[in-house]
Amino acid sequence: MRISYFMLVASLATPTLHAQNDWPTYAHDPGGQRYSPLKQINTTNVTKLVPAWSYQMMKNEGQTRLSQSIPIMVNGVLYVGYPQNRVAALEPDTGKLLWEFAGKMIDRDRITLGSMRSLTYWPGDNQTPPQIVFGTPDGELYSINAKTGKPNPGFCNEVAVNLRTPEIMNGFPNIHYGLNSAPFVYKNLVFTGAHNIDNTGPKGPAGNVRAWDLRTGKLVWTFHTVPRPGEMGHEAWLGDDWKKMSGANVWTFFGVDAERGILYMPLGSVNNDYYGGDRPGPNLFANSIVAVDAETGKLKWYFQAIHHDLWDWDMPVPPMLFDVVKDGKKIPAVGAMTKNSLLFILDRMTGEPIYGVEERPVPKGDVPGEWYSPTQPFPVKPPPLVRLSFKYPDDIAKVTPEHEAACRALLEKVDGGRNRGPFTPSSAEGALLMPNNFGGATWSGGAFDPTLGYYVINTTDSGWIVNTSRLDSDPDAPPESPRLFGRPAGLPRAAVAVNGWPCWQPPWGRLTAVNVNTGDIAWQIPFGTMEGVPPGIKTGASNLGGGPMTTAGGLIFIGAAIDHMFRAFDSKTGQELWSVKTPEVAHANPISYMGKDGKQYIAIAAGSTFLTYKLP
To answer: What element of type H or E holds 102?
Structure first.
């Protein structure tokens, strides 16, 4: 069994445990393919789609993030979560409310997040009926009866599990810790990651992954994402830097190879986001995909996609399992990606790259005391899915003469942006980082078409200028965990854009299909529209938050773009076939299910409204 920094994963989907009409987990199947086997709606009739019903989700005073929740559909009931800590059970054909559950609103940290991005379903056993399981931004883990919405009597005595245990909080009880994505269920275990607040100083709550027994709510195992003495990977930390280190957390979704019992964990960066002089070295297991035995938490292998992250690029894209057919051989694989949108396709049994990985030299910065990794891993295939560099003036956008002139004037003030290629670090005078810390790609991830072997994902070509300065008097840093260097509090990161249009050549947003059997891009199109762009020019637009779904009808459904459009594309060609304007941007992923009326439904959360569509 080989363990290395450079293992990548491409993963095989496991058989669904529920009827094909259902959508029992955030991504439909444990392997995260987001593929619906339904094909009543297909490329020949998708243009006939009409609204079916809608459901108004709660919209609270002061709520800054609307629902990003991906619903689930099990045994004829649709479940959707929304702010604040609420779950509703709905009739899938009509939207009629069956029951609603409201979790506690503790607001101990005054951190306002959207809903838990999704829920998860546990079919129960001979002692416990089926359950809906979810976590909250306040650090509570709930298990409620799927039929009644009542708390599970055996699960922590009908009380939510408090995830903010002393071991996790590391002696920092006042720093935020919670969940903002769905936990993951395998057999009788539920796995939880964490949402750790960024830029609070290097020390804080741990990002450890834990497994809990769904029958009792008791802790089963803990995986230390910053390895301790005696654990694999600890040698990558110097001295006592590992102690009470915050971050290296799964803040999005897990993946599971149910057949082999392997849990895949996509880990984010450690704190702070833009400065790591107090954490020299590669910082394992930050920015890594880590494979463990699902029942014990024992490490199998890992692959680190970014060494010593200084860009807040995390690894938010959920791992996706699929088969790769290469040289006539079927290889169980897993796809892993950070915000910089380099897709690593790995053997999911060993972590070995299927198409190769190269450690390439990257720029070194000049921040005092900083540690810079001399190289970073790049997949040989596929190529980067977004722009990673900017050359002034060659790469200035030329959409209109007026926009080009304004961008030249803007960039002349900042020495052309001072971008030095992929992995340009921030500096005291400021440097253009591409992508910015939203990505690239983000938590919404991709989808897979198993009939074509296409990995489909939406990305945004983003960037901004970030400066790194001394922060001796940073009011946002807790006194027990000071930030010495970083982005000054209250100073906005400078967007390199004029009137909302980025200053680099389009596309500004893309939808890409990668053929995993060759590692090549099958097709790539500009995705989304930007207001005011001259007719006939396809620039694409920002589309972060919200991702695709594929179907057996040969379709890709996706919202996400800032133009408020919900679209359907031909999976084979990328041709747009249908679109509809939604009241708010759909910052979530769609699902599909078969209603009791024999109709296939397409459903998505768009801001505060849950929308459904079907054929007339």
So the answer is: strand 97-102
Residues 6+ apart with CB under 8 A from 484: 275, 277, 278, 369, 470, 471, 472
- Angle, CA 503 vertex, CA 497 and CA 504 arms, to 5°: 140
The residue assigned the tokens 């003036």 is 393
Q: What is the pLDDT of residues 313-372, one digit of tens each?
A: 999 999 999 999 999 999 999 999 999 999 999 999 999 999 999 999 999 998 888 999
Backbone angle region of 407, left / alpha / beta, with phi > 0 → left and psi within -120 to 50 → alpha: alpha
Structure tokens at 273: 């986001």
The Cβ of residue 404 has, within 10 Å, a number of other Cβ atoms equal to 16
| CA-based nearest residue to 262, from 307, 223, 213, 305 | 223
d(CA 64, CA 347): 40
pLDDT tens digit string along 214-261? Answer: 999 999 999 999 999 999 999 999 999 999 999 999 999 999 999 999
The full length of the chain comes to 616
Among candidate residues 450, 447, 468, 469, the one with its CA nearest the CA of residue 458: 447
Whole-number Å distance between alpha carbons of 428 and 366: 8
What number of other Cβ atoms are within 10 A of residue 499's Cβ?
A: 10
**What is the C-alpha separation between 335 and 3, in angstroms, rounded?**
17
Q: What are 241's two structure tokens?
A: 């830097």
Token pair in block for residue 353: 């790259």
Q: Phi/psi of residue 166, each to 5°? A: -55, -40
Question: How many contiguous H segments (helices) and E segments (strands) does the chain have?
Answer: 2, 43
Strands 35-36 and 548-551: parallel
Task: For residue 225, count other CB atoms closer than 10 A to its CB.
Answer: 26
* Residue 388 CB-density burial (10 A; 0-12 exposed, 13-18 middle, 19+ buried): buried
Q: What single-letter DSSP state applies at residue 29? A: S
Bridge partners (DSSP) listed for residue 81? 87
Say if CB 469 and CB 485 are below 8 A apart. Answer: yes
Question: Cα–Cα–Cα angle for 180, 117, 64, nearest 5°?
Answer: 70
**Pairing relation of β-strands 120-122 and 97-102?**
unpaired
CB within 8 A of 280, min separation 6: which ones? Answer: 238, 241, 308, 371
Cα 159 to Cα 70: distance, rounded to the nearest angstrom: 25
Phi first, then psi, for residue 304 (nearest 5°) are: -95, 120
Q: List the strands of the sheet with 555-558, edge to edge.
A: 35-36, 548-551, 555-558, 565-570, 576-581
Statement: residue 17 has pLDDT above 50: no
pTM listed for this prediction: 0.94
Geometric angle at alpha carbon 185, from 182 and 187, rounded to 5°:
175
What does DSSP assign to residue 521?
E
H or E element that contains 368: none
Strands 86-90 and 97-102: antiparallel
Measure the CA–CA gap between 538 and 559, rounded to whole angstroms: 17
